[in-house]
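Worked example 3 (structure in, sequence out).
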């Protein structure tokens, strides 16, 4: 996972920036034991502490978006036979960044370069888009397996294809946009 690229360069070129972080892994493991109570005060505190208050994440979001709004937050588990994305067939530039907080013992495959191609993804039962695996065998797409033994963080372009092989992740989607009149700020 070590790279000389900046997080922004990694996301623009490969579609993803990853870093192992045992503190995040432990926090994800702990909230998972409680059933991911995101609609409670504890769950909202988890979201704030592990995304909005994390300078690494804020800095990356701010290099892409002057303003962003929360698209959704949800936990997803393993499904090693399927490849998903959040978006497909969108503009050439990133419109959505997805923050993934990974549990300990996680392994995933990111399809580097897939964010730059239209892959005919269709609706999946989990609310994401599913990419036919045969569409990932194109030039310019490289499957990269990442293991986070102690958990960690990934920030990806919402168009990137990914597969959860082992473990689970909390995901928070940030969408390019302006606040509504009289409302909030940059998330």
């Amino acid at each position: 996972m070590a790279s000389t690229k900046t997080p922004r360069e990694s996301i623009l070129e490969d579609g993803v920036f990853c870093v192992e972080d045992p503190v995040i892994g432990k926090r994800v493991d702990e909230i998972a034991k409680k059933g991911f109570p995101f609609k409670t005060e504890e769950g909202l505190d988890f979201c704030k502490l592990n995304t909005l208050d994390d300078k690494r994440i804020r800095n990356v979001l701010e290099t892409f978006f002057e303003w962003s709004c929360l698209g959704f937050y949800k936990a997803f588990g393993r499904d090693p036979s399927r490849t998903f994305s959040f978006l497909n067939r969108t503009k050439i530039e990133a419109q959505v960044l997805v923050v993934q907080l990974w549990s300990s013992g996680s392994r995933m495959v990111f399809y580097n370069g897939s964010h730059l191609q239209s892959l005919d993804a269709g609706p999946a039962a989990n609310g994401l888009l599913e990419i036919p695996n045969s569409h990932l065998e194109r030039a310019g797409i490289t499957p990269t397996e990442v293991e986070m033994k102690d958990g960690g963080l990934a920030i990806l372009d919402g168009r990137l294809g990914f597969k959860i092989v082992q473990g689970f992740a909390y995901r928070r989607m940030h969408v390019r946009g302006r606040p509504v009149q009289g409302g909030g700020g940059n998330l």
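Notes: Residues 78 and 183 are 36 Å apart (CA to CA). The chain is about 20% helix and 35% strand.
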